[in-house]
Amino acid sequence: MSEQILERRVGIRGWLLQPNPRGRTQATAQQLYKNWQRFCGYPLGLVGLAIIVLLIVVAICAPLLTSYDPIAQNMANRLAAPSWEHLLGTDEFGRDVFSRIVYGARTTLYIIMLVAVIVAPIGLLIGTCAGYFGGWVDEILMRVTDVFLSFPGLVLALGFAAALGPGITNAIIAISLTAWPPIARLARAETLSLRKADFIAAVRLQGASAWSIILRHILPMCVPSVIVRITLNMASVILTAAGLGFLGLGAVPPSPEWGAMASSGREFMIESPWVIAAPGIAIALVSLAFNLFGDALRDVLDARGSE
Amino acid sequence: MIDVRNLVVRLGSPPQAVVKRVSFSVETGGSYGLVGESGCGKSTVLRAISGLNPDYRGEIEIGGKVLSPVRPKEFYRSVQMVFQDPYGSLHPRKTIGAQLLEPLRNQRLPRSREAVFEALTSVGLNPELRYRFPHQLSGGQRQRVAIARALILEPQVLLLDEPTSALDVSVQAEILNLLNELREKRGLTYLLVSHDLAVIAHMCDRVGVMQAGQIVEEVEADRLRAGTLEHPYSRLLLEASQQYGGSTEEPLTMNGAA
Amino acid sequence: MTAPLIEAANLEVGFGGGKIKAVRSVSFTLGREKLGIVGESGSGKSTVGRAIMRLLPPTARVVADRLRFQEIDLLTASNRDMVHVRGRRIGLILQDPKYSLNPVMRVGEQIAETYLQHYPAAGGKAAARARVLEMLNAVKIRDPERVARLYPHEISGGMGQRVMIAMMLIAEPEVMIADEPTSALDVTVRLEVLSLLDELVTRRNLGLILISHDLNLVRRFCDRVIIMYAGRIVETLAASQLGEARHPYTRGLLASLPSIDHKVSRLPTLKRDPSWIDAVETNS
Hints:
The structure holds three protein chains of three kinds.
Chain A: H1 3-8, H2 11-17, H3 24-39, H4 43-60, H5 62-65, H6 97-133, H7 135-150, H8 153-164, H9 168-195, H10 198-204, H11 210-246, H12 258-265, H13 274-305
Chain B: E1 2-11, E2 16-26, E3 31-35, H1 42-50, E4 56-62, E5 65-66, H2 75-78, E6 79-82, H3 96-106, H4 113-122, H5 139-151, E7 157-161, H6 169-186, E8 189-194, H7 197-203, E9 206-211, E10 214-220, H8 221-226, H9 232-245
Parallel strand pairs in B: 3-8, 3-9, 6-7, 7-8
Antiparallel strand pairs in B: 1-2, 1-4, 4-5, 9-10
Chain C: E1 6-15, E2 20-30, E3 34-38, H1 45-53, E4 61-63, E5 66-69, E6 72-73, H2 79-85, E7 90-93, H3 97-100, H4 107-118, H5 124-138, H6 144-148, H7 157-169, E8 175-179, H8 187-204, E9 207-212, H9 215-221, E10 224-229, E11 232-238, H10 248-255, E12 282-283
Parallel strand pairs in C: 3-9, 3-10, 7-8, 8-9, 11-12
Antiparallel strand pairs in C: 1-2, 1-4, 1-5, 5-6, 10-11
Helix pairs in contact in C: 4-5, 4-7, 5-7, 7-8
Subcellular location (chain A): Cell membrane
Pfam families (chain A): BPD_transp_1, OppC_N
Main location (chain A): membrane
């Protein structure tokens, strides 16, 4: 390609496009930058990413964006229609709906991050071990996975949440228990095809132990597809979390959570639609964003293998 | 250096003998070629020797010691392998430098910048390439990296599984030259597997012709060049390769039937 | 020689919005002969074949002064016209029969399907069956009735390539494009498939484009040879005169092949000269 032209560029962009990387950091940064450039070719993915970034910013800056306490009640002003004072109106206890949505972003983000942090390592580890070792290890791990897969996710989450008692942490544990099996399956399938690859054989011929092969060579290859899968699953995680909240098994009442907000707003749906519409739209928007982002991410990370 | 006696390998289910009582030996510093067509079991022999497939019967002796089917870690310091497909034998998400350090890490040897420099220069690559990823290199460069990775542990034996059949002819010549230079310089012992009789004739002192899991004929490379083979199959293979190789001037004569 | 079957003048193929030029000002004609296109990976040889078949991805930009197949202008022909050209009038054979055959369909059925697709009014299934057996016979398969009932995984590589040839021949094309037809086959089988192709081309009076990386194969098999480097034709020669090639690239390629008969301690390697990329073709 036109390497001379690229070399003439300066600054960070020049550093990122330099044909001869001078260090490992630069080499990795260049790969990320290339993927980012490719990602920019997916406008819908960018929209999804923008919404997710917005969610994070809103969650971090919640106190700056709101002038009301999300749990302070004001019975004199209950079910007020949207106005300049209350942008999205107030609910049945006179709480500002906008503030509750903004603070609810924190709850949603908390659930999403914890689920991802719990599910990805469990799924990856179980899947890669099953795939690499095969035999009875595979049998046992996969049968356990099948048991979890055989129940509909929401029902299983409901059962766990009911058994553990309501609360955000318990909801997260319940959701994670239903979310890891598909990840494990995916990681196993990838491992099965990688296990026979020559570059794994080469590492075996260096005398590497099975654990080091799994952790250092196979796992990194499974990470991209697992990230994609988890991102695409986030929509259903958010919906399950909202569903648990809606049924009273998620966040405990005064704390703001979108699902619970929608649930309590349902009584006043006809005369005060904003109480249910606002959290409903927020849930739909964030789930959509994760779907769009995940779709684009999948295309970008897939294309990399075919280079 | 390498002594293989009555090697039998069964693969598949139900298990079928893919390699049937194969015996041969390679002297220290020698270069032995196994030639045959696809499915004749030549690569299976290599995998059994390398330790990738511990499920074999018979004896494999390297450097005067009979090996156990499951190899100890130190074994890999003396025997290394280069694979056919340079696209598949390098980890796609690790830089070249990191991949070259991996054997040292696995053998708990000291890892240094100099080792990577040395390894890359010894196969004729610019050390600046150490921060590249495999997909940023050409096929020939990748195969050079694979050779460097095999040699960084300073083995005495190099197993070569069709090392050039995925490469262009001009690149093939470069890699074959490199392999010959390295053998001379380091006193390496080669066991080369290929379907290409011309490559084998160029690289090896002795040749074993394999068919259906057996070595049907073993000859010095000179006899291969002189065309004095005895077994009907090895003669057929030689004839086909010569005709094909354009060294005789007759037109195509083999009128094939299925 | 009569009017050429295929004529290309100044063919250019670009990818990525024209940034990468895979093929640059390539001109050649094909009569009723065996024309070889040789080059290393990345030389653009396969792209030429695909451009003729119009099988390039939509991102490719194809420009030419002329790209014709007999009366059809391949640059402007509609996709419907191309359906009649592709398979029916120009046949394509690819490298590995394993990937070109449908794994869950019997071999005979697949050939029959091709026939019915191109000749829907030719007497239905019974006629198709008869033609299939005739074709399998033509590609020298000994027991056509039995082979027709087999699935692709039950036949060997050489047999698979014969089946592919039969499948292509049944449409009675005027031109065949064979892209590395024997690279996936063992050397003893290669010769059989090649001599079969040779016989069919001569007997049916077809034009053949053989795309290959293998100089020896092309030299033994073709009438004329085009040598491509970096998207350009560096030399066009009669196959018998390949030994007297002038271009350093061609000479380098020939020299770098190891030989069974004479031992050299070091194979000559190719020094690539950047000027070749822009050099003009040397005809001899």
